[in-house]
Design goal:
single chain; alpha/beta; Rossmann fold; two-stranded antiparallel ribbon; 43% helix
């Protein structure tokens, strides 16, 4: 299995799986993108797959921040995706001091906008965005457009849903989202250049 680790020249290099946690500095952060919670406020399978991958990476990069990004998509009186993700990661042993909650985003464009702002405020220079396979291309587009120079963004894909019907549905939703987000992509590009 191949993993990605920060490297001195470009900020990233490919490695084979390590036996010990990486000694990453605090200028590096994982970013877990949220997904709509279930009606009872629990983690849907897509988000659990993202978090499971992020947990392995958080153990590997033991000194990195972990930004969880997602707002209260079910209403202001309900917990945010970020809060639910943070509780899950804490329950799995991730130290609360490493977690940064971005609990206002309601879509991928806002995830990128708010996370890039947080990264810059904290001096984070490298982000590893964790999402699922079909969402990763659009997420990376938003993050790289928002990041501009000086912030390296890499993406990592959690496995997609099982079953052909579920995979096709995910792809169709993502294709539709690209169309709906054309204006946001242009805005992200303009902001990243300034």
């Amino acid at each position: 299995m191949s993993t990605v680790t920060p490297g001195p020249e470009t900020g990233w290099k490919q490695n084979s799986a390590p036996s010990q946690p990486e000694r990453a500095d605090r200028a590096f952060s994982l970013v877990v993108l949220g997904a709509a919670l279930t009606e009872n406020g629990s983690l849907p399978p897509v988000l659990l797959r993202r978090l499971t991958l992020a947990l392995g990476l958080a153990r590997r990069f033991a000194r990195a921040f972990v930004i969880v990004s997602g707002g209260a998509t079910q209403g202001p009186d309900r917990p945010s995706e970020a809060e639910v993700m943070a509780r899950w990661l804490e329950a799995q042993g991730v130290d609360r001091g490493r977690l940064i909650l971005e609990a206002t985003s309601l879509n991928t464009a806002q995830n990128a906008h708010h996370v890039v702002r947080l990264a810059r405020e904290r001096g984070i220079r490298r982000l590893m965005v964790v999402t699922d396979q079909v969402h990763l291309p659009r997420a990376m587009l938003f993050f790289r457009l928002r990041a501009g120079p000086g912030l390296v963004v890499l993406g990592v894909a959690a496995p997609g849903p099982e079953g052909r019907r579920a995979r096709v549905g995910s792809v169709l939703r993502e294709v539709a989202a690209f169309g709906r987000n054309a204006g946001r992509l242009v805005a992200a590009w303009r902001e990243g250049r300034s």
